[in-house]
Amino acid sequence: MPDGVGLELLAQELREAEAGSILETLYFRDKGVLIVSVAYIREVLAHLRAKGFSSLMSVHGVDYYPEEPRLGVHYELLNMAGVDRLTVKLRVPLDEPSVPSVTPDWPTANHQEREIYDMFGVIFDGHPDLRRILMPEDYEGHPQRRDFPIGGEPVHFTIDEAHGRVYTQ
Amino acid sequence: MSTTPDVRRSEYRQMEESITMAPVERLEERGDQELLTLNMGPHHPATHGVLRLLVTLDGEVVRDLKPIIGYVHTGIEKTAEDKSYWKVIPIVERMDYLAYYFNAMAFCGATETLLEVDVPPRAQYLRVIHMELNRIMSHLVWLGTSALDLGAMSMFWYCFREREQILDLFEQSSGQRMHTRYIQVGGVAEDIPRGWAEKVREFTAVMPARVDQYNDLLANNEIVLQRLRNVCPLAEEELLKLGVTGPLLRAVGNPWDLRKAMPYSSYDHFDFKIPVGTEGDNWDRFAVRVAEMKESVKIIDQALDGLPEGPWITENRKVALPPRHELATSMEALIHHFKLVTEGFRVPPGEVYYPIESPRGELGCFVRSDGSSKPARVHMRDPSFVNLQATAPMTEGSYIADLIATLAMLDPVLGGIDR
Amino acid sequence: MEIKREKLPAGGRDLISGKDLSNEDFRIRQLRARDMLRGDLGDEDLEKYAQERVLTTTMEKAVAWARSNALFPATFGLACCAIEMMSIVAARVDVARFGFEAFRASPRQADLLILSGRISIKMAPVVRRIYDQMLEPKWAIAMGACSSSMGVFNNYAIVPADKFMPVDVHVPGCPPRPEALMHGILKLRKMIQADPDMGWRDGYGARGTEEVVPSDESDPAQSAINVFQPGNTLGA
């Protein structure tokens, strides 16, 4: 993992290349995190690819409810040659949940961005085929959001004192 | 036939002689091709689980492939947000249902990183032993079902014979054959019973000979060779761009294995090799996994030889349950037990991504904690979900039978893909 | 210790009347068999002859016996329980002993649908369609906790099988051991043998989807899902 100093140097380089791209850096549990602004995500990832982080291992979404901006997308980068990992995070609000898709540059993000769209409702601009992947195509709602109910069925007990019910067979 | 004119017979002969039996090297795109879109699945004997494929065919040749998944979507990640960390372990285990120790390990590793709790060395070795046994078991199921897909039916029974032996070992150590919830946050659930190490050694003594037996059955079989050699290779850059890891990447020649590159849980104490292929066709994918089984046996032997004494779970009473005998004497132990069982331990806020090497590739677990006793987000980066994207480029231009063989060699587990 | 010796009848025991036959009865039987083969027996003699020989069973019972011993399960593996279902085909718990080895891929050729695994909402219409494609008589086993009830996952994505198709046997477990699934299959086999007509629909009370209707809170009988009528523990 790039250590704290390496991370700051990296962030400095990226800030010089694209002003306003890096909002914050974090070093948490021996791993570097870059928080970027939404518009620059493709450029930042391209720069990091040039730095050696050539593998995008995971693209996943997070719902930060009730903090705003609410929806987050995390990119896990891996540098195979240098044996290094780096996380890039961005946050979008619920009323404008569009993020530029990185699928044209990183084909691995195809299914993963579809999953984030399905589960959270983040719209990826430029994605070749953005539709639901895990839920049925006509499903309404985005299940992984924190305010989406978990669903399920109540368990029927034989003697349900809370409701004063006794089921006889 | 005596009245048939000579002209027709010679035309027929010309037609007959123009057909060659040589394999078609490269199929030219014809302008007038008629494409047929066929739906394979979700209920299909050849797919490994409920995978639906929309295959666009030109005759027997696959032109395009669209996988449609979601038929086993269980909402594991959503359910995990509703339960305390201890209770998430069985939920998350049922994701990639052939690699249940790995699912639990990824989640527990992420939670331990957040908690900053140390895992005792004995627990690390026990985790390694169980994970490697699980790796062998997963490869055995893969081998049995893939050979069944190819038509070599007897392999299924041989592989499941070994699998039953491994499941007996799991049952002896944890009480369950599958989904054992043996790996817990901070260590393992219980110490191995007396005599278990000897039983594992009985198994590892026999296993390399069995792997040779499988090789004898399959590796020199002309049909298997014809169906797997030089079939559906994919270049390394394509695989890397698609994020493919695991035996598929190692079959092309890239020796990326998290156990060696970024070791976790004492994997750096063991001496083992990474089997690597050369061409990346189906045969290499097959051979890499079979060779990995032998390497796993080596790891298990070394781990048993060097198994250290000590606790099998962390001594931090705020994370792990205290031993039962303490409950009778110590008030703090009783309170810890009560709090852990009812509410669960609280994890400091933060976000962690913990990757491990599962039998199918990089299995990562992302845990976000908001300081309470339930995780705020659990995401499992499943290797099969990402590897599935490689199916379309791999099978373009090949026959349907090759598609089936490639799917088998891809080793997708739909539980992990759909979560 | 007193040893009692029982003399067994020399010619066997008559199946219908239950009386012992002696050697002479046996000889008479042989002569009658010769007459029957020659075509010399009269009408009532022939009927009596047939009654004495054919086991006292109805045709339906025989058919039920044949059906129960040659079930063709459909290859329908969904999730983790599918691996344990594969285990029953394997050598340790060998389902071929009971005649169920021929797993058919096509539902049109299968009798038994073993729902092994969790049924997600995307998969439920597919399962129903496959079940509809099976020809009568057909049975369904809900293997594991997820298909019987929601199992470990009580959430938006899973449907228990009872909601959309009639299930004959539920096998609990997560996943059930191969021996447990075998037990469930043998119970199903006894079920098939025990009812001579296709009585599983009536016994189950299944007329399609069963829903809990919370219409009258004061009357528990209305709002409960009452699958088995009192006294009828078919298959339990």
Tell me about this structure.
The complex is a heterotrimer of chains A (169), B (419) and C (236). The mean pLDDT of chain A is 85. Helix content of chain A is 21%, strand content 30%. With 169 residues, chain A is α/β, with parallel strands linked by helices. In chain A, a hairpin with a 4-residue loop joins strand 4 and strand 5. Chain B is mostly helical. Chain B has 18 helices and 8 strands. In chain B, helix 4 packs antiparallel against helix 5. The longest helix of chain B is centred in the N-terminal third of the chain and has 30 residues. Chain C is α/β, with parallel strands linked by helices. In chain C, 38% of the residues lie in helices and 6% in strands. In chain C, strands 1-2-3-4 form a 4-stranded parallel beta sheet. In chain C, strand 3, helix 6 and strand 4 form a beta-alpha-beta unit. In chain C, helix 4 packs across helix 7. The relative contact order of chain C is 0.10. Chains in contact: A-B, A-C, B-C. The interface between A and B is large, with 38 and 41 residues.
Which helices and strands occur, and which strands form pairs?
The complex is a heterotrimer of chains A (169), B (419) and C (236).
Chain A: H1 4-17, E1 22-28, E2 31-36, H2 41-50, E3 55-63, E4 71-79, E5 84-92, E6 98-100, H3 109-120, E7 123-125, E8 159-160, E9 165-166
Chain B: H1 6-18, E1 36-40, E2 52-58, E3 61-68, H2 76-80, H3 85-93, H4 100-115, H5 121-150, H6 154-174, E4 183-184, E5 187-188, H7 196-218, H8 222-228, H9 236-241, H10 247-252, H11 258-261, H12 282-305, H13 324-327, H14 331-342, E6 350-358, E7 361-369, E8 377-381, H15 383-387, H16 391-395, H17 400-410, H18 414-418
Antiparallel strand pairs in B: 1-2, 2-3, 4-5, 6-7, 7-8
Chain C: H1 23-38, H2 43-53, H3 59-69, E1 73-74, H4 80-89, E2 112-116, H5 124-133, E3 139-143, H6 144-148, E4 169-171, H7 178-194, H8 200-204, H9 220-223
Parallel strand pairs in C: 1-2, 2-3, 3-4
Helix pairs in contact in C: 3-7, 4-7
How would you sum up this structure in a few lines?
The complex is a heterotrimer of chains A (169), B (419) and C (236). With 169 residues, chain A is α/β, with parallel strands linked by helices.
Question: Could you spell the SSE succession of chain A in H and E letters?
Answer: HEEHEEEEHEEE
Poorly predicted runs of chain A: none
Strand proportion of chain B: 5-15%
Mean pLDDT of chain A: 85
Q: Could you say which overall geometry of chain B the principal axes of the C-alpha atoms support?
A: globular
Oligomer classification: heterotrimer
Query: Which value, in Å, is the CA radius of gyration of chain B?
Result: 25 Å
Q: State the helix count of chain B.
A: 18
Query: Can you tell me the residue ranges of chain B where pLDDT is under 50 for at least 5 consecutive residues?
Result: 1-5
- The helix tally of chain A amounts to 3
Relative helix content of chain B: 40-55%
Q: Outline of chain A, from the CA principal axes?
A: elongated
Termini separation of chain A: 63 Å
Give the structural class of chain A. alpha/beta
Of all chain pairs, the largest interface belongs to: A-B, 38 and 41 residues
**Number of separate strands of chain B:** 8
